[in-house]
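Reminder: ligand-aware prediction takes two inputs, not one.
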Amino acid sequence: MDGVTVIDHPLVQHKLTFMRKKETSTAGFRRLLREISTLLCYEITRDLELTTERIETPMATIDAPVLEGKKLVFASILRAGNGLLEGMLDLVPSARVAHIGVYRDHDTLQAIEYFFKAPEDIGDRLVIVVDPMLATANSSIASIERLKERGAKNLRFLCLLAAPEGIERFREAHPDVPVFTAAIDERLNESGYIVPGLGDAGDRMYGTK
Ligand code: URA
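Here is what comes back for the chain with uracil:
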Protein backbone atom coordinates (compact mmCIF):
# COMPACT_ATOMS: atom_id res chain seq x y z
CA MET A 1 0.00 0.00 0.00
CA ASP A 2 1.37 3.39 -1.00
CA GLY A 3 2.83 5.38 1.91
CA VAL A 4 2.34 2.52 4.39
CA THR A 5 5.17 0.42 5.78
CA VAL A 6 4.46 -2.78 7.70
CA ILE A 7 7.29 -3.44 10.12
CA ASP A 8 7.49 -7.21 9.78
CA HIS A 9 10.58 -7.83 11.91
CA PRO A 10 10.14 -11.29 13.54
CA LEU A 11 10.61 -9.92 17.07
CA VAL A 12 7.93 -7.29 16.44
CA GLN A 13 5.50 -9.91 15.13
CA HIS A 14 6.22 -12.29 18.03
CA LYS A 15 5.71 -9.62 20.69
CA LEU A 16 2.55 -8.38 18.99
CA THR A 17 1.01 -11.85 19.22
CA PHE A 18 1.53 -11.85 22.99
CA MET A 19 0.04 -8.36 23.25
CA ARG A 20 -3.08 -9.54 21.39
CA LYS A 21 -3.72 -12.47 23.76
CA LYS A 22 -6.57 -11.60 26.10
CA GLU A 23 -4.91 -13.38 29.03
CA THR A 24 -1.77 -11.19 28.89
CA SER A 25 -1.60 -9.23 32.17
CA THR A 26 -1.43 -5.44 32.45
CA ALA A 27 2.22 -5.67 33.52
CA GLY A 28 3.03 -8.02 30.65
CA PHE A 29 1.22 -5.85 28.13
CA ARG A 30 3.07 -2.73 29.31
CA ARG A 31 6.44 -4.47 29.19
CA LEU A 32 5.80 -5.82 25.69
CA LEU A 33 4.66 -2.41 24.48
CA ARG A 34 7.83 -0.81 25.78
CA GLU A 35 9.98 -3.48 24.09
CA ILE A 36 8.10 -3.38 20.79
CA SER A 37 8.19 0.42 20.65
CA THR A 38 11.98 0.34 20.82
CA LEU A 39 12.02 -1.94 17.77
CA LEU A 40 9.46 0.18 15.91
CA CYS A 41 11.49 3.31 16.69
CA TYR A 42 14.60 1.63 15.32
CA GLU A 43 12.79 0.87 12.05
CA ILE A 44 11.09 4.25 11.60
CA THR A 45 14.40 6.08 12.07
CA ARG A 46 16.55 3.86 9.87
CA ASP A 47 16.75 6.41 7.02
CA LEU A 48 17.65 9.47 9.13
CA GLU A 49 20.35 11.67 7.57
CA LEU A 50 23.84 11.57 8.99
CA THR A 51 26.60 14.14 9.00
CA THR A 52 30.05 13.85 10.56
CA GLU A 53 31.71 15.31 13.59
CA ARG A 54 35.47 15.44 14.16
CA ILE A 55 36.25 13.42 17.28
CA GLU A 56 39.33 12.07 18.97
CA THR A 57 39.45 8.46 20.01
CA PRO A 58 42.29 7.40 22.31
CA MET A 59 44.07 6.30 19.09
CA ALA A 60 43.28 8.83 16.33
CA THR A 61 41.22 11.77 15.07
CA ILE A 62 38.34 10.83 12.77
CA ASP A 63 35.22 12.29 11.18
CA ALA A 64 32.55 10.12 12.81
CA PRO A 65 28.83 9.88 11.92
CA VAL A 66 26.24 11.72 13.99
CA LEU A 67 22.58 12.50 13.27
CA GLU A 68 22.07 15.58 11.14
CA GLY A 69 19.64 18.37 11.98
CA LYS A 70 17.64 19.25 15.05
CA LYS A 71 16.50 16.74 17.65
CA LEU A 72 13.42 14.69 16.77
CA VAL A 73 9.98 15.37 18.18
CA PHE A 74 7.86 12.45 19.38
CA ALA A 75 4.23 13.52 19.50
CA SER A 76 2.10 11.29 21.71
CA ILE A 77 -1.64 11.12 21.23
CA LEU A 78 -2.90 10.71 24.81
CA ARG A 79 -3.29 8.48 26.55
CA ALA A 80 -2.31 5.28 24.73
CA GLY A 81 0.42 7.07 22.75
CA ASN A 82 2.42 7.33 25.98
CA GLY A 83 2.92 3.58 25.95
CA LEU A 84 4.81 3.83 22.67
CA LEU A 85 6.59 6.98 23.77
CA GLU A 86 8.48 5.43 26.67
CA GLY A 87 10.34 2.83 24.63
CA MET A 88 11.08 5.36 21.92
CA LEU A 89 12.64 7.69 24.48
CA ASP A 90 14.78 4.78 25.71
CA LEU A 91 16.28 4.72 22.22
CA VAL A 92 16.33 8.49 21.48
CA PRO A 93 16.56 10.13 24.92
CA SER A 94 17.26 13.58 23.49
CA ALA A 95 14.00 13.74 21.52
CA ARG A 96 11.58 16.55 22.30
CA VAL A 97 8.04 15.51 23.21
CA ALA A 98 4.65 16.89 22.20
CA HIS A 99 1.41 15.78 23.85
CA ILE A 100 -1.97 15.93 22.20
CA GLY A 101 -5.08 15.08 24.17
CA VAL A 102 -8.05 14.00 22.12
CA TYR A 103 -10.81 11.70 23.23
CA ARG A 104 -13.34 9.80 21.17
CA ASP A 105 -16.91 10.83 21.68
CA HIS A 106 -18.53 7.44 22.23
CA ASP A 107 -21.63 8.31 20.20
CA THR A 108 -20.13 10.13 17.22
CA LEU A 109 -16.60 8.56 17.37
CA GLN A 110 -15.32 12.09 16.59
CA ALA A 111 -12.07 13.37 18.14
CA ILE A 112 -12.46 16.16 20.73
CA GLU A 113 -9.26 17.99 21.75
CA TYR A 114 -8.63 18.79 25.44
CA PHE A 115 -4.84 19.28 25.62
CA PHE A 116 -2.04 20.41 23.31
CA LYS A 117 1.61 21.15 24.09
CA ALA A 118 4.45 21.06 21.55
CA PRO A 119 7.94 22.54 21.09
CA GLU A 120 7.96 26.06 19.56
CA ASP A 121 10.27 25.23 16.68
CA ILE A 122 8.42 22.09 15.60
CA GLY A 123 8.61 23.22 11.96
CA ASP A 124 12.37 22.64 11.91
CA ARG A 125 12.15 19.07 13.20
CA LEU A 126 11.05 15.62 12.10
CA VAL A 127 7.89 14.82 14.07
CA ILE A 128 7.00 11.20 14.74
CA VAL A 129 3.38 11.00 15.87
CA VAL A 130 2.58 7.92 17.95
CA ASP A 131 -0.68 6.17 18.81
CA PRO A 132 -0.87 2.36 19.10
CA MET A 133 -4.20 1.98 17.26
CA LEU A 134 -5.09 3.50 13.88
CA ALA A 135 -8.80 2.64 13.98
CA THR A 136 -11.27 5.24 12.63
CA ALA A 137 -8.27 7.62 12.31
CA ASN A 138 -10.35 10.47 13.77
CA SER A 139 -7.89 11.26 16.55
CA SER A 140 -4.75 10.88 14.45
CA ILE A 141 -6.17 13.02 11.63
CA ALA A 142 -7.22 15.74 14.11
CA SER A 143 -3.89 15.59 15.99
CA ILE A 144 -1.86 15.94 12.83
CA GLU A 145 -4.04 18.86 11.70
CA ARG A 146 -3.18 20.62 14.99
CA LEU A 147 0.53 19.84 14.60
CA LYS A 148 0.49 21.23 11.05
CA GLU A 149 -1.32 24.38 12.27
CA ARG A 150 1.60 24.81 14.72
CA GLY A 151 4.05 24.60 11.83
CA ALA A 152 5.00 20.91 11.61
CA LYS A 153 5.99 20.10 8.03
CA ASN A 154 7.88 16.85 8.22
CA LEU A 155 5.79 14.15 9.89
CA ARG A 156 5.57 10.39 10.16
CA PHE A 157 2.88 8.36 11.92
CA LEU A 158 3.69 5.26 13.95
CA CYS A 159 1.17 2.76 15.30
CA LEU A 160 1.05 -0.86 16.33
CA LEU A 161 -2.15 -1.94 14.60
CA ALA A 162 -4.08 -0.35 11.78
CA ALA A 163 -7.50 -1.04 10.27
CA PRO A 164 -7.75 -0.79 6.47
CA GLU A 165 -10.56 1.79 6.87
CA GLY A 166 -8.36 3.92 9.15
CA ILE A 167 -5.41 3.80 6.79
CA GLU A 168 -7.58 4.87 3.88
CA ARG A 169 -9.06 7.83 5.76
CA PHE A 170 -5.69 8.83 7.17
CA ARG A 171 -3.92 8.72 3.79
CA GLU A 172 -6.74 10.73 2.21
CA ALA A 173 -6.49 13.44 4.92
CA HIS A 174 -2.68 13.49 5.16
CA PRO A 175 -1.11 12.01 2.00
CA ASP A 176 2.21 13.65 2.94
CA VAL A 177 2.50 11.66 6.20
CA PRO A 178 3.85 8.12 5.81
CA VAL A 179 2.36 5.47 8.09
CA PHE A 180 4.41 2.79 9.85
CA THR A 181 2.60 -0.09 11.54
CA ALA A 182 3.39 -3.56 12.88
CA ALA A 183 0.23 -5.03 11.29
CA ILE A 184 -2.82 -4.23 9.22
CA ASP A 185 -5.82 -6.06 10.67
CA GLU A 186 -9.02 -7.24 9.06
CA ARG A 187 -11.57 -4.53 9.81
CA LEU A 188 -13.24 -2.12 12.24
CA ASN A 189 -16.32 -3.27 14.12
CA GLU A 190 -19.47 -1.17 14.59
CA SER A 191 -18.02 0.36 17.79
CA GLY A 192 -14.85 1.49 16.04
CA TYR A 193 -12.63 -1.24 17.48
CA ILE A 194 -10.03 -3.06 15.40
CA VAL A 195 -10.75 -6.76 14.73
CA PRO A 196 -9.02 -9.03 15.63
CA GLY A 197 -6.99 -6.25 17.28
CA LEU A 198 -6.01 -6.35 20.93
CA GLY A 199 -8.92 -4.56 22.60
CA ASP A 200 -8.64 -1.08 24.08
CA ALA A 201 -4.92 -0.30 24.15
CA GLY A 202 -5.23 2.33 26.91
CA ASP A 203 -7.26 0.03 29.14
CA ARG A 204 -4.91 -2.90 28.60
CA MET A 205 -1.89 -0.71 29.33
CA TYR A 206 -3.26 0.91 32.47
CA GLY A 207 -5.58 -1.79 33.82
CA THR A 208 -8.71 0.32 33.46
CA LYS A 209 -12.07 -0.55 31.94
N1 URA B 1 -8.56 2.14 20.14
C1 URA B 1 -8.20 1.04 20.82
O1 URA B 1 -7.58 1.11 21.88
N2 URA B 1 -8.50 -0.18 20.29
C2 URA B 1 -9.15 -0.31 19.13
O2 URA B 1 -9.38 -1.43 18.69
C3 URA B 1 -9.54 0.86 18.45
C4 URA B 1 -9.23 2.07 18.97
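The chain has six helices and 14 strands. Helices lie at 10-20, 26-44, 81-91, 138-149, 164-173, 201-206. We will return to this case in the review session.
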